């Protein structure tokens, strides 16, 4: 282990050498079933042939020119993304946090354009929006914020899945310009709001002239069983942010806008050196095209159902298991006790999982999962959980 890496992560003592589909191999040749996808990134699995070929071809053609010139793959990806998401325009960044930075800047600019000099954005308790100064300030977790004060101002906090609290803010706060919310809270432990929540937020935003900004960085790109989680309610946001699975491992983020929000950012307001470069955009285009052609979101819906049912059945008699929650392949086993140790137990058994919020086993497997691979995840995880609690 190198001593020259800043100790930002507590990495597990395993190094992967290569991957194929839903499997990874470590440097000792041991095989692992990947039920995490690098935190919802490699949704097409590892080494997906079309994406590999696209990256190889682009690497041998053109990597970077800058946004001082027009970039044809950026335009192609923008057209396909906007058509798929029912949005109008997109700004490309390099990560989720950067996509959210663009959204936050856009909301503030939108406010100032309406003579609101102290624009506020409503954000939720337990939300996660990233680790840059503005996005960690929008995040609803003291653990993420502690030690980094002074935080960026301009955020108003509300409980998640609580329409009454948003109505109360609308009555009392004339400076609000937008709501920023995850359709499903990921880092918080796959917290799925009541159905109708996003539609109600859409209604409140329309009544007050606020922007509805959806952080679909984890829930988007097919993972929820629809291409975008907001499509479960046929809600169209003003702003939607994407990253994670958009490049299947090639870093790319996107801030999509529609209607009035699409006209807010003008030349000079925002920018990025790398954002939207030919390599990342060709990867993103190939990912999106592959997902659409192969009905990847439908497979996520079916395998998510299969996995949730298998886990519920296999864990039904375990008193330490609270519940299994899922929307497509955003899946959580809520335990009644802290369960971080399960990560190492599953690793030992050749299964990659994650524990978040202390007592939630989070599964974000590749969306290309087969029926057999789904059954295998359930079999290993049930055995680990029963061993852990027994
Ligand atoms: C991962 C994530 C982010 C941050 O993305 P980075 O690429 O790590 O900056 C923001 N919002 C949500 C909902 C996420 O899951």
Please characterize this protein's 3D structure.
- By secondary structure, the protein is of the alpha/beta class.
- It has two domains: 16-34 and 295-389, Aspartate Aminotransferase, domain 1, CATH 3.90.1150; 50-293, Aspartate Aminotransferase, domain 2.
- It has twelve helices and 15 strands.
- Strand 2 (23-26) and strand 3 (31-34) form a beta hairpin.
- The mean pLDDT is 98.
- It binds pyridoxal-5'-phosphate.
- The site of pyridoxal-5'-phosphate (PLP) has 14 residues, from helix 4.
- Pyridoxal-5'-phosphate is lined by residues 95-97, 100, 128-130, 182, 186, 215, 217-218, 243-244.
CATH class of the largest domain: Alpha Beta
- Count of helix runs: 12
The secondary-structure element order is EEEHHHEHEHHEHEHEEEHHEEHEEEH
**Which CATH architecture of the largest domain is right?**
3-Layer(aba) Sandwich
Major sheet size, sense and barrel closure = 7 strands, mixed
């Amino acid at each position: 282990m190198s001593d020259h890496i800043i100790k930002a992560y507590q990495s597990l003592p395993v190094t992967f050498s290569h991957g194929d589909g839903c499997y990874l191999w470590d440097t000792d040749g041991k095989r692992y079933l990947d039920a995490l996808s690098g935190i919802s990134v490699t949704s097409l699995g590892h080494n997906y042939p079309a994406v590999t070929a696209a990256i190889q071809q682009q690497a041998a053609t053109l990597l970077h020119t800058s946004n001082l010139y027009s970039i044809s793959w950026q335009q192609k990806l923008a057209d396909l993304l906007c058509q798929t998401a029912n949005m109008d325009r997109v700004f490309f960044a390099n990560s989720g946090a950067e996509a959210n930075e663009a959204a936050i800047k856009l909301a503030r600019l939108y406010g100032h354009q309406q003579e609101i000099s102290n624009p506020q954005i409503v954000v939720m308790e337990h939300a996660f929006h990233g680790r840059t100064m503005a996005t960690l300030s929008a995040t609803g977790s003291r653990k993420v914020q502690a030690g980094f004060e002074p935080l960026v101002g301009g955020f108003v906090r509300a409980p998640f899945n609580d329409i009454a609290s948003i109505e109360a803010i609308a009555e009392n706060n004339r400076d609000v310009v937008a709501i920023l919310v995850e359709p499903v809270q990921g880092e918080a432990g796959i917290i799925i709001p009541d159905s109708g929540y996003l539609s109600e937020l859409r209604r409140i935003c329309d009544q007050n002239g606020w922007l509805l900004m959806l952080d679909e960085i984890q829930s988007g790109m097919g993972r929820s069983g629809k291409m975008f989680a907001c499509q479960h309610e046929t809600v169209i946001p003003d702003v939607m942010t994407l990253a994670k699975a958009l490049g299947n491992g090639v870093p790319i983020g996107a801030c999509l806008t529609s209607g009035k929000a699409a006209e807010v950012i003008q030349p000079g307001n925002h920018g990025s050196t790398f954002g939207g470069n030919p390599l990342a955009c060709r990867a993103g285009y190939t990912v999106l095209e592959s997902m659409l052609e192969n009905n990847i979101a439908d497979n996520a819906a079916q395998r998510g159902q299969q996995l949730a049912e298998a886990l519920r059945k296999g864990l039904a008699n375990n008193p330490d298991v609270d519940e299994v929650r899922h929307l497509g392949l955003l899946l959580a086993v809520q335990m009644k006790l802290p369960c971080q140790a399960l990560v190492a137990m599953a690793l030992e058994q050749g299964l990659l999982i994650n524990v978040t919020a202390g007592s939630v086993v989070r599964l974000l497997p590749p969306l290309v999962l087969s029926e057999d691979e789904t059954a295998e995840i359930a079999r290993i995880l049930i055995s680990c959980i029963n061993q852990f609690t027994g």
